[in-house]
Probable branched-chain-amino-acid aminotransferase
Amino acid sequence: QIVYVNGEFVPAAEAKVSVFDRGFLMADAVYEVTSVVGGKLLAFDGHIERLQRSLSELEMASPVTMDELLQIHRDLIAKNNLEEGGIYLQVTRGAPDARDFAWPDPAEVPSGIVLFTFEKPLIDSAIMDAGIKVMSIADERWGRRDIKTTQLLYPSFAKMQAKKQGCQDAWLVEDGYVTEGTANNAYIVKDGVIITRELSTDILHGITRAAILRFAIEAQMKVEERLFTIEEAQNADEAFVTSATGFAQPVIEIDGAQIGTGVPGDISKRLREIYTEEMI
Ligand code: PDD
């Protein structure tokens, strides 16, 4: 496969990143994952806007313009003949000569950038028919989850705990309320109302979340943005999660309690259909 590293398209095996790269040493990097269906990017503008916001919140510069980024995405899709899957993009603060917690002057140390593609079935997925089981766990990530950084050790840890319990994912809980999934936004449905946590620094502002809520409102569904607990979720009629690489995925069990009738709910399924129709 062909990847993009700091200005060049090279075979993955030849790609090189410095050992001093702050992305590698300190998770001083931001990223985006954009899905691709039929060789086309989904919601690219949303991902680029969020990338710019992540960069500016951390006073990081992009080594390429946003127009160039679009072209790099398109070139990578073509070079890898990517039909369905996604593109991972990471901007790091670059590789200063010395390891120092204070970040370097961007005029002296240019940011680094890496992109690669991956194949993944997004439309037809067995897990959609079955739904996923989730486990709750304390949210012990840092407090700026609205910035999409590569500090992913805690979400990885949480997902491993979930897998050990026979679940596919974990829902993170802070001060008694669900924040989000390890790599997705979390929702419940009660009496026809779609409930999801409001946007703040506590959660990532999902690009799929924005689209799903817009489509739900257009389809005359009711949406409430508010906090909810695991207990409320366990007593909901339906639950689901959204992300670029999962679209809307039904959740059928939370901490061993069956949600609704234990099969993917109608609203979750309908939202997945609408999302697929509207986006592709
Ligand atoms: N994760 N919340 C978190 C913590 C996430 O990492 C993600 C995305 C989302 C959903 O955001 P979006 O709809 O923009 O994909 C919510 C990506 C897919 C990942 O880390 O692979």
